Amino acid sequence: MAFSTDVIFVGNIIHCDKPFNVRVLEKGFIAVRDGKIASIDCFEKLENYRKTAKNVSTIQLKNSQILIPGLIDTHIHAFQYPIIGIGMNVSLFSWLDEHIDKLEQKFRDLEYAKKVFDAIVKKLLSYGTTTACYNATTWTDATLVLVDSAIKYGQRALVGKVNVTVGMPGHLVETLEESIRDTKRLINEIAKRKTELVQPIITPGSALNVTTKDIPFFVELAKKYNLNIQAHMNETIDGIKQLESRPGDVHKNFTHTHEILTEKSLFAHCVHMTKEEIQKLADSGSAIAHCPDSNFNLLSGICDVRAFIEAGVKVGLGTGVF
Q1: Which candidate, 75, 34, 142, 17, places its Cα nearest to that of 319?
Q2: CA-to-CA distance for 287 and 308, rounded, in angstroms?
Q3: What does the domain layout of the chain look like in residue ranges?
Q4: How far apart (Å, rounded) are the C-alpha atoms in residues 97 and 190?
Q5: CB of 305 closer than 8 Å to CB of 283
Q6: Other C-beta atoms lying within 10 Å of the C-beta of residue 7
Q7: What tens digit of pLDDT does each residue of 27-41 get?
Q8: 2 falls in which pLDDT band (50, 70, 90)?
Q9: How many Å apart are CA 214 and CA 190, to the nearest integer?
Q10: What b/e string do you get for 188-220 counting C-beta neighbours within 10 Å, with b at 16 or more?
Q11: Distance (Å, rounded) from C-alpha 28 to C-alpha 186?
Q12: Whole-structure pTM value
């Protein structure tokens, strides 16, 4: 929503102005100008702000209401929404085989995709999630349906077409050339929509889904268009063992593929990490998406979040939609 006037919300406010510091204003105000927050302060300073404002509209909250910042989901698979809570009696790879591969196939039907993506965007907004970092699908047309859902309902989003060149069933695998081509199309189509709400994000699924030879091409795309990168990293012991069993010149852990470690990179899960790997993320400025529900429900393990924070790695929360 964009405001042509200054809108001032008055009431109880809780927010964090810096990490690990919660600020409570039992009676404060938030001023919004042209759709952006212009000021957050205590009620006593409201009159001073009014002197600089034009066409002020005031919204008074009830005593039972609290204003908080919009929530940010840093890792979410939008297409998995129809099967939330299903298959939590198996580990990750069994769950993928039994439920996910068949489900994603349905998203070739764009009407089905629209129904699901409209539903998840509206549900997230109803919970206060105003920003989401989406893994959409491997198909660009369906991914664009999610883009349009976010725009329609006013959710800020980073939306990624998932790049998969190996390691999945044949109907989900693409050649590198196809993956690059379709990712470029996503980037261009989002640009045509001329929106500040939604941005593309480069999304190589995991080190099991792309080869070491593929990575530089995806990193180059991110650099060319100044985009973020998201991927899965060290989610399960089984996944790490699979990676180690494959030829080193074909697959490597992303922590050994230095091109992908950047200040604009976000890695999901990161459950089973060595101190050296954590330090590499810190040194590169990369961030992680901590997904505790997913990690617990699929018995992936427990992420040592404190180790990342103490090393200086940026940490966000994600649902993973499990």
Answers
A1: 75
A2: 9
A3: 6-67, 71-317
A4: 32
A5: no
A6: 19
A7: 999 999 888 899 999
A8: very low
A9: 24
A10: ebbeeeeeeebbbbbbbbbbbbbbbebbebbbe
A11: 42
A12: 0.91
pLDDT tens-digit map of 161-171: 999 998 776 67
Cα–Cα dist 308/313, whole Å: 5
Dihedral-angle region of residue 39 (phi above 0 means left; psi in -120 to 50 means alpha; beta otherwise): beta
Burial of 52 (0-12, 13-18, 19+ CB in 10 A): exposed
CATH of domain 6-67: 2.30.40.10
Read off φ and ψ for residue 32, nearest 5 degrees. Answer: -115, 125
Contact call for residues 202 and 133 (beta carbons, < 8 A) = no
Separation CA 103–CA 110 (nearest Å): 13
Query: Domain 71-317, CATH 3.20.20.140 — does that match?
Result: yes
How big is the chain, counted in residues?
Answer: 322
Q: What is the 3-state secondary structure (H, E, C) of the chain?
A: CCCCCCEEEEEEEEEEEECCEEEEEEEEEEEEECCEEEEEEEHHHHHHHHCCCCCCEEEECCCCCEECCCEEEEEEEHHHHHHCCCCCCCCHHHHHHHHHHHHHHHHHCHHHHHHHHHHHHHHHHHCCEEEEEEECCCCHHHHHHHHHHHHHHCCEEEEECEECCCCCCHHHCCCHHHHHHHHHHHHHHHHHCCCCCEEECEEECCCCCCCCCCHHHHHHHHHHHCCCEEEEECCCHHHHHHHHHCCCCCCCCHHHCHHHCCCCEEEEECCCCCHHHHHHHHHHCCEEEECHHHHHHCCCCCCCHHHHHHHCCEEEECCCCC
